[in-house]
Every structure is written in structure tokens, then in C-alpha cells.
Amino acid sequence: MKQFRFNYSEKFTQVLEDFAKSHSTEDRKEFRQSWISLRNKNTEIFQEEICRIQRQGYDGDIDKKIFESIRYYYRKKILKQPTKTSKTSKTSKPKLGGFSREIKQWMDIHIKNIIVQETENLVSPAEAFDDFCRENREEITKEVFRLKSKVNKQVNKQLDPAEITDKFKKSYKNRYYKLHETNKLDK
């Protein structure tokens, strides 16, 4: 079973976060040079992490994966953090809230079916989500209307369709990951 999501060890995550903080404002070339320098100074920590990820089943270019995660995720996370001097504006952004129990059950049933079938065909969470959307349009539409009516009662603003889609994707993929992990542990 191929794994799509890998978590770094605490020690390694701390190294990445520290690096991202100190080099978040550098341009691409400077960032790459700093990365190479960090990689050369901490070869032991990097080798431990690479071996650990390989044991978990990753067969791609791990060094590239780590660089991309620090360049595009850790660094971005640091840049998004508000500074102490900047004031965050309190806008009345509508909150979606949670999904209904029924839609969660539909997601779980679909994911369990995918996992059972996955012994022959490898399915990524993104592909599984697309399949879920095709098969359950009616249930998704009902849920969207339920969320919209709930938000309209809270705040007199329109809901962004992209926000709803992102919430569905994130919820489905998190449920996929959790069910996939528990299924792996049961075996």
C-alpha cells in the first residue's frame, strides 16, 4: 500500500521550522544556497529522516520532497503569521461550521469502499474525492444548501463557493487519511 502523506519526526520538524524562520525573506537562489548549506551541516539528521521515510514506503526523491515542503509549506506558514505590530482586522467572515452526520457517513462509506477495492488499484485521496463528488452529487448539493442557509442566518453575506469546495476536499481527505491509517493498523 503506497502512502501519500508523510510526517517528519519532531526533531527534524524543529530543524525545518528554525530554518524557515531565519530564511523566510530570501529570494529563490539565496534560499537554495542556504538550504544546501543546512543540508551539508546536518547530514546525520537528514540521513536519519530519509531512512525513516524510506522505511515507511516512500520511493521518490526524498531530498526534493523535503526541500519542496520547506520552501512551499514551512516558509509560507512563517510568512503568514501576523507580527506583533500588525493588527488583524476583524471582519465578519461567515463561518461554515461542521458537516452534517449524514454527509460524513456518506464520505466514510465511500472511503471504506475505496480502501477495500484498493488492493488491486492504487487510488490517491484526490482521485477518491473526485469519485465521491461524481457519485454523490445530490447529497453534496443538499449539504451545500444546508450550509448556505446556516451561514445566511448568522451573517448577512454570501458564501464563497471555493471555500465550500475547499472545506469538502479537506474534510474528505482527512477522513480518507484517518480511515486508511486505521485500516492499515487493523491488518
Q: Could you list some keywords that capture this structure?
A:
2 domains; 8 helices; single chain
What does this structure look like?
The protein is an all-alpha fold and 187 residues long. The chain has 2 domains: 10-80, no CATH class; 101-186, no CATH class. The chain is 71% helix and 0% strand. It has helices at 10-23, 28-41, 43-55, 62-80, 101-117, 125-135, 137-154, 161-186. α5 (101-117) packs across α8. The mean pLDDT is 80.
What is the CA-atom radius of gyration, in angstroms?
21 Å
Q: Which band does the percent of strand residues land in?
A: under 5%
Spatial gap, N to C terminus? 12 Å
Number of domains: 2
* Number of helical elements: 8
Average pLDDT, rounded to a whole number, is 80
List low-pLDDT spans: none
Shape: flat
Number of strands: 0
The biggest sheet, with number of strands, parallel, antiparallel or mixed sense and barrel status, is:
none
* H and E order: HHHHHHHH
Question: Which structural class is indicated by helix and strand composition?
Answer: mainly alpha
